[in-house]
Automatic annotation (TrEMBL):
Domain FAD/NAD(P)-binding positions: 20-325
Top-rank lineage group of the source organism: Bacteria
GO MF annotation list: oxidoreductase activity, acting on NAD(P)H
Domain Reductase C-terminal as annotated: residue spans: 344-407
This protein's GO CC annotations: cytoplasm
Record-linked InterPro entries: FAD-oxidoreductase/Apoptosis, FAD/NAD-bd_sf, FAD/NAD-binding_dom, FAD/NAD-linked_Rdtase_dimer_sf, Reductase_C
Protein name stated in the entry: Putative ferredoxin reductase
Swiss-Prot/TrEMBL cofactor(s): FAD
Keywords: FAD, Flavoprotein, Oxidoreductase
Length: 415
């Protein structure tokens, strides 16, 4: 049974509406699955604006771009019927009314803009991010790319064979991975980043420099401390970029990886509170995903949960979303609140798995304990206590640290 619905011309629909999940990505599907595995019997409706069933994003900058994978669906097609999850694709939620307990939905390809109202008992918001674009640059310029959706990745992939030069703007995780993947396609890649090293904001400059070394040693030209002032084109497609030090770089492809912004515009006027911009923005939640509106939860990249220190924090990592989905599903299905795991993320570059466990800040003290010029292992500490571990090609050593991050551990024990 689906959530109770009505078209806009009629009144509010009646009946038990169950849980309506907005956003059919990783967080959305994990909540839907978690509800069923926790014994939740009411209707579950999963609404997604993309035409594709929920798929995995990490492979987009890795195996999909390389050409190893075309489909990275998170569930087989039969899962939705077997689990009685009403999957509605190609539908954009444009509004939520917490008083009435309804969401308003439009079909993206509908010529007559018919609005549908769906009632919920509980709503879950998992609408993720959209890539930040360069100000003043037309986003439909041929040869200019971002990588957030599978369609983005397949479009970029289709242009790799004809390209010999590329500029990647922004050395965050996605920028670094795309630079690595394109280099593997025999494309001469320049990675442009205003910060002093790649990944400086996420990992600090000391570890960022080790990642920069990995990229340079494998053929990426890493241009740090410099910004892009202009994307140059010939009227039909990109031809290069101009830098703020006066240089102009030729490029058949330009990939923009300058971060993303939470997708929250459908909340305007709803009263659902957002986190302050200085805290990363996104939907403000308590420590277990409840927003400022009754019966409305949020999770994943779009959500800013309050941490144990009372600080709103938004995290853009796969495992974090999975952990939050488990907490939210458990909470809706009636269980006790669960506590999240130790934060974890990974990145794949040039055949090395870079992994981080814990929640260090870039200002924490870094202790590099192993570095053979390619693989490395480092700990982070604050006030003498271990806050994180990062390794490249050090899977066992990183994972062994997990128990030490679950309780306060003096860094001296590890050095
Ligand atoms: C290229 C790439 C590589 C990555 N690699 C890694 C990695 O190596 N390691 C790691 O830890 N993490 C990685 N991540 C991050 C990870 O994929 C995300 O943390 C995760 O996908 C977050 O899940 P989510 O459900 O919050 O958002 P998403 O997966 O983005 O899902 C949100 C969904 O909501 C839909 N939506 C948005 N607005 C609406 C609306 N109004 N109505 C209906 N639907 C809507 C969107 O279309 C989207 O499908 C990567 C991300 C990308 C893009």
């Amino acid at each position: 049974m689906a959530g109770a619905t009505d078209t806009e011309s009629g009144g509010a629909a009646q009946g038990v509406a169950g849980t309506v999940i907005v956003g059919a990505g990783l967080g959305g599907i994990r909540v839907a699955e978690g509800l069923r595995s926790n014994g939740y019997q009411a209707p579950v409706t999963l609404i997604g604006v993309e035409p594709h069933p929920p798929y995995d994003r990490p492979p987009l900058s890795k195996s999909v771009l390389v050409g190893k994978d075309d489909r990275v669906d998170l569930k087989p097609a039969e899962f939705y019927g077997e689990s009685t999850i009403d999957l509605r694709l190609g539908r954009r939620v444009v509004a939520i009314d917490p008083e009435q307990h309804t969401v308003t939905v439009v079909a993206v390809d509908s010529p007559d803009d018919v609005h549908e109202t769906i009632r919920y008992d509980t709503a879950v918001l998992a609408t993720g991010l959209r890539p930040r674009l360069l100000p003043g640059v037309a986003d439909d310029l041929a040869g200019l790319h971002v990588v957030r959706t599978i369609d983005d990745a397949l479009t970029l992939r289709s242009e790799l064979a004809a390209a010999s030069t590329a500029v990647v703007i922004g050395a965050g995780f996605i920028g670094c991975e795309v630079a690595a993947t394109l280099t593997g396609h025999d494309i001469a890649v320049t990675l442009v980043e205003p910060a002093p090293t790649p990944l400086a904001a996420a990992l600090g400059t000391e570890i960022g420099a080790l990642v920069g070394r990995l990229l340079s040693d494998n053929g990426v030209t890493v241009a740090t401390g410099v910004g892009v002032t202009e994307v140059v084109d010939d009227g039909t497609r990109v031809t290069g970029v101009r830098l703020d030090d006066g240089r102009e770089l030729q490029a058949d492809l330009v990939v923009v990886g300058i971060g993303s912004v939470p997708v929250t515009e459908y909340l305007e006027g709803s009263g659902v509170e957002l986190a302050p911009r200085e805290a990363g923005g996104g939907i403000a939640c308590d420590g277990h995903g409840l927003t400022s509106a009754a019966d409305v939860y949020a999770l994943g990249d779009v959500a800013s949960w309050r941490d144990d220190d009372g600080v709103q924090r938004r995290v853009e990592h796969w495992n974090h979303t999975v952990d939050q989905a488990a907490v939210v599903a458990h909470r809706i299905a009636g269980g006790d609140p669960m506590t999240a795991n130790v934060p974890y993320f990974w990145s794949d570059q040039f055949g090395l798995k870079i992994q981080m466990l814990g929640d260090p800040r870039p200002t924490d003290t870094v202790h590099i304990v192993d570095d053979d010029g390619r693989k490395f292992l480092a700990y982070y500490s604050r006030d003498g206590i271990l806050t994180g571990v990062i390794g490249a090609g050090k899977v066992g050593a990183v994972m062994k640290t997990r128990p030490k991050l679950q309780a306060p551990t003096p860094i001296a024990e590890l050095l």
